[in-house]
Amino acid sequence: MRLRALAKWADARVETQQRGTMGIMAVLMGLSGLYAAVAAVNAVVIAGAERGTESAVARVTGLSRAQVVRMALIESAAVTRALRDEALADGSGHRPRVTRARRFQSSDGVLAWPRGR
Q1: Integer angstrom CA distances of residue 45 from 1, 7, 14, 97, 106
Q2: CA distance 1 to 25
Q3: Please, which residues have CB within 8 angstroms of residue 111's CB and are 6 or more apart in sequence?
Q4: What is d(CA 87, CA 43) in angstroms, rounded to the nearest whole number?
Q5: pLDDT tens-digit profile of 2-20?
Q6: Are the CB atoms for 96 and 88 separated by under 8 Å?
Q7: Is the pLDDT of residue 102 over 80?
Q8: Per-residue pLDDT tens for 57-88?
């Protein structure tokens, strides 16, 4: 009888500790996600500030503001996908298929503006 009570107590204690550990891990994961989001926003802001001249040249050559923004979004999406695919590569040389980003890529790897838009 006493052994059964000890086993129940041990099980309850382990469960309580696991719950606490899971809570701490959830907080740490949330903070890590927040840190990653702040880093991504920071990178986008810095990239935008550094590309002011490039955006001005694009505007002078006839692109509308919406086209310049779309160009930056497409480029950042392509870079994000490339980095994601690199991170997901399994070491065998196999990389996940990227279909939409390839539509805007020329043969030399430079992003090309889609024609007819």
Answers
A1: 66, 57, 46, 29, 27
A2: 36
A3: 74, 75, 78, 104, 105
A4: 18
A5: 777 888 888 889 999 998 8
A6: yes
A7: no
A8: 888 999 999 998 888 888 888 877 877 777 66
